[in-house]
Model the fold of this input.
Amino acid sequence: MKDSVESYVTDDGRTIGGVMLDLRNITLRFGGVEAIKDISFNIREGEIRAIIGPNGAGKSSMLNIISGFYKPQEGEVLFDGVARPPMPPYQVARQGIARTFQNIALFEGMSVLDNVMTGRMNHMNASIFSQAMWFGKAQREEVENREAVERIIDFLEIQKIRKTPVSRLPYGLKKRVELARALAAEPRLLLLDEPMAGMNVEEKEDMSRFILDLNDEFGTTIALIEHDMGVVMDLSDRVVVMDYGRKIGDGTPDEVRGNQGVIDAYLGVSHD
Amino acid sequence: MSSEFLYGIEVIINGLMAGVLYALVALGFVLIYKASGIFNYSQGVMALFAALTLVGIMEGQVPFSHLINAIFGTELHHFGWEVPAFLAIALTVVVMVIFAWLVQRFVFRHLVGQEPIILFMATIGLAYFLEGVGDLMWGSEIKTIALGLPQGNARWLEDVTSALGDDTFYGFFVRQLDIVAALVAMVLVTALIVFAQYTKQGRAMRAVADDHQAALSVGISLNFIWVLVWSLAGVVALVAGVMWGAKSGVQFSLSLIALKALPVLMLGGFTSIPGAIIGGLIIGVGEQLFEYTIGGPFLGGATENWFAYMLALLFLVFRPQGLFGEKIIERV
Ligand SMILES: Nc1ncnc2c1ncn2[C@@H]1O[C@H](COP(=O)(O)OP(=O)(O)OP(=O)(O)O)[C@@H](O)[C@H]1O
Ligand SMILES: [Mg+2]
Done:
């Protein structure tokens, strides 16, 4: 059932729709190195899709392709069934795809609030003059955007640090602020590159809860890279497994767990 | 109050007036440097070019007339009309925006990710190129700006303030042009700050200044922001060029006002807007006061030329990050 593009309802009552993002025969090279080799998989509306694999497997590169930071040499990216021409990251963002980075990319010189506010960039349309003069549309928009940002800040439980400069925050909170900024864009597709790396158990539990809640409440489609298998199995609807730039598994957590190739990759069986 | 003391105050007032203009020129540098890491050597030539363009448009000069005449054997020089000041200013701003776009499109777009020193060298090339273009477009004669800016000293200020001291004090002597320049510069600086703080484009500008990757991920086009900051730097250059040009004529030496901004940047830091403003004021007041108290009486005068650099150097030794820059901590 899950292989067809018919929508279905999960055990916990969420609706998974048709294919939103379809990656076809993607190959990415850096000089002579093939970081991604002929990989195809898709992401469906409303699902939580995990990408796993050992270090250097090409997971981040895959997210970078989806978000426009890398341009694959071969293959196609279809968004809502339409082939997407090569486009810079800012245009991808404007299509409703938001992301976080493995190595956190926040505006270190700004407060938490300002950081999250930049996530609203695509929801500001008032002309520059009405903004500077602070009337009409600009004022209405600013109020709306502030409300949206405050809701997200409440949702992620970072009210206490709203005014704190980001550079003063510990790692775990930075990750949370980065998520808040991505959420502020109200994306259709959210890409998370190791959102729980370097976190303690409690922080991981919080983050898992946020991810589940936002998928459940706002219907946001999520693709995430994660090394913690427990987390992956708990959160995701489907998992892609990568190793040395190839796709070696794709399916539900249970299917993937039983896959011999995946087990070998994780146990470090030698490649020949 | 003793007239000694009052003349000291006059010196400070004049220093502040000059300082506002230094701050403005320095701001042009800071805008571009913050957003792109480019130290724009051509900022001074941009001021010259903008002022030349303004005068040329106002007087109805045919651009590139020498070139056109040489090629086609024509005798074109003037369109035979004069353009009102406000329209000429608007047109000059348009020219500076086009310049910004061209620079981005044909130079820096191809140098993304290069070493800062390469980017710097590109701006040196740009400076000489723009100087040549300015000559070719508008000719190299000294021109005067007929914006109707007031000349002479502010008599009203003298009259009002002469009562402060005894008979030997005649009131503060401040040039009207300096007052106008300071006011215009203050308005422009305020406008820039409001723009950066409260508009979408301003926010985007600060975001790009902070982290390119993060800015891209929230949907900001780096190219757009770079054209924007070069355009803003062009407007800043225009204002600086006009105010300076009104004092000493629009001619090559105008491009040397950039040299006045360097010590301001050393003092205020290359990335701080408040730093540029306070730095400009400190340099303006400092060089006047030094000349008045020490330079003139003991060193034979004309110390303004080097005092700013000496002050900036001293500062650099003790606070390399500038007035407001964050402390630079070497991570090992
Ligand atoms: N910008 C780049 N330039 C050159 N090589 C790169 C670049 N980005 C990634 N690579 C290479 O591509 C391969 C895949 O890297 P990638 O970061 O996608 O792996 P990953 O699965 O995310 O690993 P990790 O779990 O360590 O984050 C690696 O060999 C890496 O060195
Ligand atoms: Mg990675």
